[in-house]
Each structure stands twice: as C-alpha cells, then as structure tokens.
Amino acid sequence: VSYVVGKDRIIFATKEDHETPSSAELVADDPDDPYEEQGLILPNGDINWNCPCLGGMASGPCGEQFKSAFSCFHYSTEEIKGSDCVDQFRAMQECMQKYPDLYPQEDENEEKEKSSKDLEATPMEASAAKEEKGSS
Predict the structure, then answer these.
(1) Which of 67, 75, 90, 128 is deepest in the core (most CB within 10 A)?
(2) What is the pLDDT of residue 86?
(3) Predicted confidence (pLDDT) per residue in 25-45, tens digit
(4) C-beta neighbour count of 42 within 10 angstroms
(5) Domain count for the chain
(6) Domain region containing 91
(7) 31 within domain boundaries
(8) What does the pLDDT look like over 68-106, one tens digit per residue?
(9) Is residue 109 part of a domain?
(10) Burial level of 32, CB count in 10 A (0-12/13-18/19+)?
(11) SS3 letters across the chain
C-alpha cells in the first residue's frame, strides 16, 4: 500500500516485506494516477479533494473543517481573498489543536512567538526608560 504526500511517496511494509529484498521502483510521476494529472483544481473549477497535494488534510477528524475553510478561501471574492473565511479557519485550527499527534504544530511558529514577545517587551522598557530620563 502506498500513497503520495506532497513530493513524497509513503509505502507501508509488513514484516514479511522486510524479510525479502525490496523490488520497489521509485517513479516520479505515475501516468495511471487519475488524480495526479488533475492537480488541486479540476477543469470545471471544483476542488479535487483527492489531490495528493493536500496530504490527506481533507480526510481525518478535521477534514470537514479543512474543506469548509479551504472551499471558502477558494471561492472567496473579497478584495483580500479569504478575509471572509476567518471563522472557518478558526474552527479548523481549534479542531487541529485537539489532535496534536495528527496535526503537529510548527515548532518554528512557537519560536517566532517567543521571540516576538521578547521583542515587544524590549521597546516598551526602552520607551519607559526614556520617559524617566525626560521627567528628571
């Protein structure tokens, strides 16, 4: 059993599979995969929920929330595309936070948040120090 996630092909192997030499062939593009050639957007403009490029986000416990948010963004006609989809994206984010093993949060974002909080604190202290100097 194998499926594609982004640029990677994931293959599930049994114990028996590991006991014999691999006969797996690495194929960049499978011409027989009907979804591979369609891409994310189907010719009629609909979203291809089976596209491997979605990495399985459309299925799983938060699949409906993902579909709702992604559909809203895709069909958004607002000047700032997707600005009318905040509620759907919030619902998706809240759902994903309930399943951290399935939807790991980016460690980079946590690091950025920590450093931005540190940066926010620094100018306040600096401006407070200037005010004290100015009042004496």
Answers:
(1) 67
(2) 96
(3) 544 455 555 545 578 999 999
(4) 14
(5) 1
(6) 36-97
(7) no
(8) 999 999 999 999 999 999 999 999 999 999 999 888 877
(9) no
(10) exposed
(11) CEEEECCEEEECCCHHHHHCCCCCCCCCCCCCCHHHHHCCECCCCCECCCCHHHCCCCCCCCHHHHHHHHHHHHHCCCCCCCCCCHHHHHHHHHHHHCCCCCCCCCHHHHHHHHHHHHHHHHHHHHHHHHHHHHHC
What distance in Å separates the CA atoms of residue 56 and residue 50, rounded to the nearest whole number? 8
Does any domain span residue 114? no
C-alpha 84: how far from chain center: 19
Instruction: Give me the half-sphere count of Cα atoms (radius 13 Å) on the Cβ side of residue 25.
Output: 4
Asked if 48 contacts 85 with a C-beta cutoff of 8 angstroms, the reply is: no
What CATH number does residue 53 fall under? 1.10.287.2900
C-alpha–C-alpha distance, residues 78 and 132, integer Å: 47
Is residue 67 in a domain? yes
Alpha carbon of 21 to those of 16, 17, 24, 48, 54: distances in Å? 10, 8, 9, 36, 32
The identity of residue 112, as a single letter, is K
**Is 41 within 8 Å of 47 (Cβ atoms)?**
yes
